[in-house]
Amino acid sequence: MNSIDRVKELIDKRVKARTGGGEKRIEKQHSQGRYTARERIEKLLDEGSFEEYDMFVTHRCRDFGLQDQSYLGDGVITGHGTIDGRIVFIFSQDFTVLGGSLSETFAQKICKVMDQAMKVGAPIIGLNDSGGARIQEGVLSLAGYAEIFQRNILASGVIPQISAIFGPCAGGAVYSPALTDVVIMSDKTSYMFVTGPKVTKAVTGEDISVEDLGGATVHATKSGVAHFRAESEDEGIMLIRKSLEYLPQNNLEDPIITECKDPIDRLVDGLNYIIPDNPNTPYDVKDIIYSIVDDEEFLEFHRHYARNIVVGFVKFGGMPCGIVANQPNYLAGVLDIEASRKAARFVRFCDAFNVPIVTLVDVPGFLPGSTQEYGGIITHGAKLLFAYGEATVPKITITLRKSYGGAHDVMSCKQLRGDINYAWPTAEIAVMGAKGAIEILYGKEVGEITDPEKRKQFVLEKEKEYNEKFANPYEAAKFGYIDDVIEPRNTRFRIIRALRTVATKKLTNPPKKHCNIPL
Ligand code: HXC
């Protein structure tokens, strides 16, 4: 073979590799509304930036007819490219090749890019679309998964790890995405479960569809496994790009500050009267978030899960930040098991990647009742407490209205090393609400008043007295627990100035092997 033939051979091999499992299977993939693994990479990365590794890798299996079925690349496309000019490493499972099933060599290809990502200090993105362990390869496949899991674990908190699920993701395969920072599922075309409907029926008798067991809606609303349910793969791809905008390349870098055209001192007059006069009337905290952040842009995580707390990425004066806000519009913004877990995970995510946290507080307390207690609200609530207390990134807290009891302490209070804690004049910072307090303090006396009218009058008077003393921010401000009471319309500016003031903050936790967070 002369050199021209050799180049031709290379080109032919590349063409063959790029065809994956063949035209028929590609057509099938398209007919189901799914892109191929290569199309996904093309759409995700900056144009022309992708460089592929291991295109010529093939599996080594000689059993069950696989010796006659070999595909260049072995069903997963790996390599690196850029997103908005920044390096990322990527693997994209190719369902057209043996159902995207994971073999020994398939796993080795993924491990190679994960190792490169760790060496370089750049994000790793996994696009999942796979029938799981390649059955013909037996334990080699299981070992391959474990190699990936181990790398996910070591990379956690070092480089951002983002998973998109664009097809099947079943069995133990679900644990790689679950170990990553962001999980995105495409609606109606993806599913995740440890055990599929058939085994579920055989073992428990439960008859359930794939969608109801592990579709995107289930994981975005009920289990919380998915941070995002994307309407389409295109939206899923956009969400990957968007998430990275707020994150640094690794834990030793800071997120990139971008130019901000939205005036930092923009007043939002409506905020001066957004809090209803009746403390029990709800309002939408997202209206506040959108009005104070740059350009009304808010990348909300877990939008459909534990809606009593709102979390996501925003920018303040061009600085990427995490927002955590109680949502009075849903369950009065109470903290329960799901809300505590959701917010704790997000706070730790921000802290791991040097993203400052802005907390908006309007919380009536923890949800009472046996369901919560039996479910371990003590442990789950402690997660959020732990996450805030452990976080060393800049922490700015604004108390909008209620901040009661244990929930006050949990929600980034001063003593959990809150850097700057502001309150609106509408803030109520106390051990509990007036009603509960009067019942406890005066229950006996109230019981002794036989005349219902007099009893009612007595309770109202005591509640008024209590509210006058505690339903305000000044009692906490008196002790320096609140640094300043601010005019609501000026909140955007005060947050940005606070963030700029504490941007150079240096705080480290005591040396330890790792903490023992109440998992
Ligand atoms: C080998 C597989 C495969 C697998 C699919 N294929 N899954 N080959 N190992 N795990 C092959 C099929 O034989 C078929 O080959 C091609 O991929 C496309 O699959 P279809 O079944 O035709 O596609 P579809 O009808 O869309 O169904 C998709 C599917 C189904 C629901 C994912 O393929 C399926 O149930 N696969 C098995 C899933 C599974 O049980 N996996 C193991 C999970 S346990 P041909 O040549 O006919 O086109 C696991 C343990 C991990 O993964 C443990 C980690 C710790």
Give the total of domains. 3
CATH homologous superfamily name of the largest domain?
2-enoyl-CoA Hydratase, Chain A, domain 1
Uncertain regions: pLDDT < 50 for 5+ in a row? none
Query: Using DSSP, what is the number of strands?
Result: 17
End-to-end C-alpha gap: 62 Å
Q: In angstroms, what is the radius of gyration?
A: 27 Å
Q: Please report the number of helical segments.
A: 19
Biggest beta sheet attributes: 8 strands, mixed
Based on helices, strands and strand pairing, what is the structural class?
alpha/beta
Strand coverage percent: 15-25%
CATH topology of the largest domain: 2-enoyl-CoA Hydratase, Chain A, domain 1
Shape: elongated
CATH class category of the largest domain: Alpha Beta
Q: Spell out which ligands are present.
A: hexanoyl-coenzyme A
Query: pLDDT average, as an integer?
Result: 96
CATH architecture title of the largest domain: Alpha-Beta Complex
List keywords for this structure.
2-enoyl-CoA Hydratase, Chain A, domain 1, alpha/beta, binds hexanoyl-coenzyme A, 519 residues, eight-stranded mixed sheet, 19 helices
Please describe what this structure looks like.
The protein has helices at 3-18, 23-31, 37-44, 104-120, 139-155, 175-178, 197-204, 210-214, 216-223, 233-245, 285-292, 337-352, 370-374, 377-390, 405-410, 434-448, 452-470, 474-478, 491-501; strands at residues 51-53, 76-83, 86-93, 124-128, 161-165, 168-170, 182-186, 191-193, 228-230, 299-301, 309-316, 319-326, 357-363, 395-404, 420-423, 428-430, 484-485. The termini are far apart. The chain folds into 3 domains: 3-245, 2-enoyl-CoA Hydratase, Chain A, domain 1, CATH 3.90.226; 269-427 and 472-501, 2-enoyl-CoA Hydratase, Chain A, domain 1; 432-470. Helices cover 39% and strands 17% of the residues. Strands 10, 11, 12, 13, 14, 15, 16 and 17 form an 8-stranded mixed β-sheet that branches. With 519 residues, the chain is of the alpha/beta class. The chain binds hexanoyl-coenzyme A (HXC). Hexanoyl-coenzyme A binds at residues 98-99, 101, 131-135, 142, 145, 168, 170-173.
